[in-house]
Amino acid sequence: MAKQKKSSKAQKIVMTIFAIPLIGIMTACLCGIALAFYIGMCVVPNSDIDVSSYSRELAKTTVIYAKNANTGEYEVYETLEGDVNRQWVELSEIPKDLQNAVVAIEDKRFYTHHGVDWIRTLGAIKGFATGNDGAGGGSTITQQLIKNLTGNSDKSVKRKINEIFQALALEKNLGDTAKDQILEMYLNTIPYGNRAAGIKVAAMTYFGKELSELNLAECAVLASIPNAPTRYNPFRNPENVKERQRTVLYEMKEQEFIGESAYQEALSTELVYKSDDYKQQNNQPYSWFTEAIIQELTEDLQQRQSISYDLAHSRVMSGGLQIYATIDQNIQKIMDDVFINDANFPRARKNGAIPQGAMVVTDKQGNIVGIVGGRGKKQGSLLTNRATMTARQPGSAIKPLAVYGPAMDDGLITPYSVVTDMPFKVYNDKAWPRNDNRRYQGQMVIRNAVARSINSVAVRVLDMITPKRSYAFLHDTLGFTHMNPNADIDYAPLALGGMNGGTTVREMAAGYTIFANNGKYSGSRTYSKVQDSEGNVLIDYTTPIEINAFKNEKTAYYMLDVLKEVTNSGTGRRATIDGIETAGKTGTTTSKRDVWFCGLTPYYVGATWFGYDQSYNLEGISGNTALSLWTTVMRRIHQDLPSARFDMGDDSNFVRASYCEDSGLAPVSACADDVRGSRISTGRFWKGDEPKEECNLHKYVKICRDTGLIATKRCWRTRTVAKLDLTRKFPIDFSPSIEDAPYTFSGDNEPVGSGDVIVSGGSLGVCHGKHSFFSDHEEEKPQEGESEETEGENTQSQSPSEGEQTTPPADNTESEEDDPEN
């Protein structure tokens, strides 16, 4: 029994001994089958790589070109860099010593294998199995290129297997030129540290040299770095890179790429690194113009290609694009010089902050030729550009765009129409709006109201076109994108510039081009053309698409007439340039937080803003700094340009005609005999717009010689003059009173306005004095047969007799410091 048990036990041992290898073989077969299945189903179908598609998406340096003002040729203006800086170069431009150095140290059997070095691969597998990291990696240059192209740096076995089959397929698909194509792509994609990617940028970064200028010693250094860019950083670890260089040179000699004498000479060659040049180059921030290009092109690509903002930004920064900028480098330098110079700014500071400024200059078509996004020397890249990124309330600078332009285009007004300067409505129990100078002047000609920036007139004209029409013009026609439809379709935002969403300096400059370009609008742009790395045109603005912002040809000419008056005699009268006509509009926001000037010449359009980044007002700063900055820049820009005046249209389309300054209608004799002096002026009207209806406001009345008011039976000294038959009503009384009220009376005309309070005409214009017949001075008794007038009765008469004197006109001139804006 014992023998049987021993025999059974021995059989089990024998069976186990045979079973273990059998199980191992079966397991290996199953694993092999699974591996083969995986390779066949998952690896081989995905092993092909479209090199051309990868190369187009590689992180290449984007180059911005600008036209040389002297030669008319485009030249490199600035380069953009994403995480790395890369400039592609053909293999033929790379020194042979550099090619050989890379092959010698990275893949000595590169020219004989077919994508995979099986000897090195087996060595790497053995090292992995035994835990011997010193066995070295098995990747060839082809495999390293695939890792660079795909961005897949996973250290898993799966990735290595995929990489092997991809390398084999790549070299097979590229055919006879495989080695040259692979080496070229490798040398252009490999990282070299210090943001340098690719051999061309590496040569410039470390040695400040073009590739053709490199010697053998320097080629060996550049071949040394990719193995470990941090460890072999020439700027930080020159000893490490020197040791690696010796290894590279030794391998080149052993593989017979160089001889002994070249080897010894290279070892003894002094290495001079350009770290100072690198630091200086990398400390130079992008210009304001370049940053505007980045912002605009990112948004353009996002919209055109239906991609995310981040992806669009990445393509702009490192997609190898070729961008042709609209910049005029001479103009940009002038702008930079003015805004860097603190002498051009007031000495002001609040809580440690200084007021800032921004400016955009375009040509008539909206091509931006210069941008400044802040005051002083630019301290970094991708900062907030106040000219393009910051939306501010524009104050009265918006009036020509939001109010007067559309109203003239709709035929509701001309430059010589008359609107009343008085409050429009009651708001919070107060008369609204008020003018900054706290004055209401009464009847005002449009061109004078714009020149003096009268708020109430702008509100009344806006009421004619409606806020909805104004908003649509700004938003839909001119592309003002920051406005808030829920809050900005109203009187204060559109007539006074108190927008909830605000606007940018760039939007304002683009908007004002319609006055310079005969009413045509094409927006604004920082580049005329963009090409991809292969030279394919992505965007072409060489001939911008223009729309007619105004439907009538006359509108732009009328608006130029009005805006010229601003710089001739109004709030912008300091914007003068010798020999060059100017036009424009000032702007000041509530509490004087922001000041603006948007102006134009026959050559250029410019918009300027000045204020604090914070919500501080400009208290203590006199004048309009935006206006002075605009003037300083524009005088230098136009210094060598021929004298020029605005194109005001074909004279055959216009007619000069007289009009009454108080009614805007055709004058009558009474208009000339106004108590303040003649109220007749001459304007340049588009044919058909000249006034045909006669003035119905001026009428002859008798006034008291002592008070200048309508005479009553108690007034013995009288004379006959013309005054305005104009009774104005308003819901509440307000102060100060309307300045032309003393020159009005209540006659046959119906009252204007609404409310119970008479603010001009009525008893306000009637003399209430008690005159003694025996006063110290000589008085006139009524002539025999002359009727006496009772209070409130205003009898019209014939023209005053020759030689009668009238009261001189009131002085309503304002200084630009008293810009009447809200």
Describe, in short, the structure shown:
The chain is an alpha+beta fold. The radius of gyration is 41 Å and the shape is elongated.
Structure report:
The strands form 8 sheets. A 5-stranded mixed β-sheet has the order 2-1-3-11-12. The chain has a 5-stranded antiparallel β-sheet with strand order 5-4-16-15-14, with helices on both faces. Helix content is 36%, strand content 14%. A hairpin with a 5-residue loop joins strand 11 and strand 12. The protein has 822 residues and is of the alpha+beta class. Helix 6 crosses helix 7 and helix 15 packs antiparallel against helix 24.
Describe the secondary-structure layout.
Elements: H1 2-43, H2 51-57, E1 62-67, E2 74-80, H3 96-106, H4 118-130, H5 141-150, H6 157-174, H7 178-189, H8 199-207, H9 216-224, H10 238-254, H11 260-268, H12 275-282, H13 288-305, H14 309-318, E3 322-325, H15 329-340, E4 356-362, E5 368-372, H16 399-409, E6 418-421, E7 425-427, E8 430-432, E9 442-445, H17 446-451, H18 455-465, H19 467-477, H20 485-488, H21 491-495, H22 505-516, E10 520-521, E11 527-531, E12 537-540, E13 547-548, H23 553-569, E14 583-588, E15 594-600, E16 605-611, H24 625-637, E17 654-660, H25 669-672, E18 680-686, E19 698-704, E20 718-725, E21 728-730, E22 744-745, E23 752-753, E24 757-760
Parallel strand pairs: 1-3, 20-22, 21-23
Antiparallel strand pairs: 1-2, 3-11, 4-5, 4-16, 6-9, 7-8, 10-13, 11-12, 14-15, 15-16, 17-18, 19-20, 21-24
Helix pairs in contact: 3-9, 3-10, 5-6, 5-7, 6-7, 9-10, 10-11, 13-14, 15-24, 16-18, 16-19, 16-23
